[in-house]
Design goal:
The chain has seven helices and four strands; from the N terminus they run E-E-E-E-H-H-H-H-H-H-H. The protein has 195 residues and is of the alpha+beta class. The chain has a four-stranded antiparallel β-sheet.
Length: 195
């Protein structure tokens, strides 16, 4: 097992630091499965995520993210790892409602999955983390998806386009509103229906 702490000192292109605290990465090697279990943890927020990946998958995904960041460093590397987990979350949810069958995920479905996964994983900190990672609107998620498609990490159908991610809903507000006091949520709903 090896641990790496990403701190503000290594922030910049290719860094993995969140403003809410240091992110601790733990790699648990599993020689019997020829893979590695990667766990990311933030000691300040209690957030943790993990997945089992083969060495090749982990290295290829990380290389793809590094390649993307060389071309376009708008988004924190954590955002890409989060997006991959959110896609897995969305695929699992679709499979559970589709008789165990996997199928292609549309842009709006992935956006809903990203929102729901962020709320489940980060709770009231979801908006703060997404803002820190520069993911503020649906189009940002779409841009990251198409970066990963360019790297041949994500697949694409002919009908898929960046516009599928344009203003589907207010991404940032969707991470804040669930944690507002009930009266404030009701006022927002009524003003939105009037406008």
């Amino acid at each position: 097992m090896s641990d790496e702490v990403w701190t503000p000192a290594n922030r910049g292109a290719g860094s993995r630091q969140s403003v809410v605290g240091p992110i601790l990465a733990r790699k648990h090697e599993d020689s019997s499965r020829k893979g590695v279990s990667v766990t990311l943890e933030c000691p300040l927020t209690g957030w943790a995520a993990s997945c089992m990946v083969t060495y090749m998958q982990a290295m290829q995904f990380e290389k793809s993210v590094v390649s993307i960041l060389k071309r376009d460093n708008r988004f924190d590397p954590h955002a890409y790892f989060f997006l991959k987990e959110a896609l897995d979350f969305t695929l699992k949810r679709i499979s559970e409602t589709n008789g165990g069958q996997a199928r292609h995920v549309s842009g709006p479905e992935l956006l809903e999955g990203c929102r729901d996964y962020a709320l489940e994983q980060f709770g009231p900190m979801a908006s703060t983390l997404m803002t820190e990672w520069s993911v503020r609107k649906c189009q940002d998620v779409g841009d990251m998806v198409f970066h990963l498609i360019e790297e041949q990490v994500f697949g694409k159908q002919e009908s898929d386009k960046k516009e599928d991610f344009s203003e589907v809903f207010d991404f940032e507000a969707s991470l804040i509103v669930p944690f507002l006091p009930k009266g404030r949520r009701m006022a927002l709903k009524s003003s939105a229906s009037e406008g």
